[in-house]
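Following up on my earlier thread - several people asked me to post the actual chain instead of describing it. Fair enough. Here it is, all 71 residues.
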Amino acid sequence: MRLDNRGLQPPEPMQRTLKALEEMNIGDKLTIINDRKPMFLFEELEQKGYSYEVNSREDGAFEIIIIKKEG
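Reply from S.P.:
Thanks for posting it. Predicted structure:
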């Protein structure tokens, strides 16, 4: 699954992302693209048992790949 959150104002990117994560099964992957690094999202992901990878894009946006882990 992929979400493009560019151009959205907070808290909409985080709300969209959390809603998509609720539908994920263990091992599923979600890729989001945000205008800025979602620092508050990282805390939430760690608490809920997701791993993530952050990549800077050439256009200045950030791509975050989120994987739901067991536990």
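The chain has one domain: 2-68. That should answer part of your original question.
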